[in-house]
Structures are given as structure tokens and as C-alpha cells.
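User: Fold this; C-alpha cells only.

Assistant: Input:
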Amino acid sequence: MSKERTVWRDRAYFILMGVCLALFIAAWGVVRLYSTTAAVVMSFVALAIPPIAVIVANAGDEASRRR
């Protein structure tokens, strides 16, 4: 597996997890003061991000899976 691909996957993972954290903080720190429904929706979106981030981080080429 190439180094560039690994760096890209790591960067994508940290960006996705950063977005997840930002959504939770924004939802319950600020948005809940204006709309609880919007805060709950933001939380559900944030809950869907970690599994996607893990799939992106663990995705590899087929050759590495066969070893």
C-alpha cells in the first residue's frame, strides 16, 4: 500500500471525527438554545459519522487483505 494512500485515509478519518465532535459541541452548546429539535437531528447525524470514519480508515487495497 502506498504511503500517500495511508496518509489520505488517516487525514480523512481525523477530518470526519473532527466534524463529528464539532456537531456534538455545536448542537448541545449553542443550537439547543434555539431549537432542541435541530440539536437532536445534529446529534443523530454525528452518531452516523464514526462508523463511516472507521470504514474509510480501514479501507485498503485487495492485496493487503489477502496477506
